[in-house]
Amino acid sequence: MFSKNDGLQNQPVLYRQRGIGEPQVLLDANKLSADGTTALAATEFSNDHRYLAYAISSGGSDWNKVRILDLKTNQPAARRAGMGEGVGHLVGEKWLLLQPLRRAQSRRK
After folding, report:
1. What confidence tens digit (pLDDT) does each residue in 3-45 have?
2. What is the pTM of this model?
3. Which of 53, 36, 62 is nearest to 95 (CA)?
4. Rounded CA gap, 97 and 46, in Å?
5. What span, in angstroms and rounded, lies between the C-alpha atoms of 107 and 103?
6. 98 and 81 in contact (C-beta within 8 Å)?
7. Distance (Å, rounded) from C-alpha 85 to C-alpha 40?
8. What are 65-71's contacts with CB under 8 Å, separation 24+?
9. How many degrees, rounded to 5, is the angle at CA 9 between CA 23 and CA 92?
10. Could you tell me which residues are beta bridge partners of residue 54?
């Protein structure tokens, strides 16, 4: 995983690359808001690298919203967490809690 900004973008783009293959866009923060002021504040993988938790900050705010991306499907996970909520916190950029999300998803299958 790496990030890159072409110099004309408000925010860097997060990519993933497997081996020597072409890099794939994993998360483009420039598409998170029309004015480009939503920034990627932190990222952290789950222990099994199935999920990516990422915190976003809107309009320069100190408050972050945490979202979880399912890396197998490249789709947002079913639940999101705001600052202080119980699922998928990022505190000090460390993954704290994913088990409730996994249990909720396994019940849906």
Report:
1. 999 999 999 999 988 899 999 999 999 998 899 889 888 888 8
2. 0.67
3. 53
4. 9
5. 6
6. no
7. 19
8. 66/90, 68/98, 68/101, 69/26, 69/27, 71/26
9. 75
10. 43, 67
d(CA 57, CA 63): 6
Measured in Å, how far apart are the chain's first and last C-alpha atoms? 30
Q: Which amino acid is located at 36 in the chain? A: G
Distances (CA, A) of 105 to 11, 78, 79, 99, 102: 31, 8, 9, 10, 5
Write 90-95 long-range contacts (CB < 8 A, 24+): 90/42, 90/44, 90/53, 90/54, 90/55, 90/64, 90/66, 93/42, 93/43, 93/44, 94/44, 95/44, 95/45, 95/46, 95/47, 95/53
Would you list the DSSP string of 20-31? Answer: TS--EEEEEGGG
pLDDT in tens, 39-76: 888 888 887 888 888 888 888 887 888 888 888 888 88
In 3D space, the residue among 63, 69, 3 whose CA is nearest the CA of residue 38 turns out to be 63
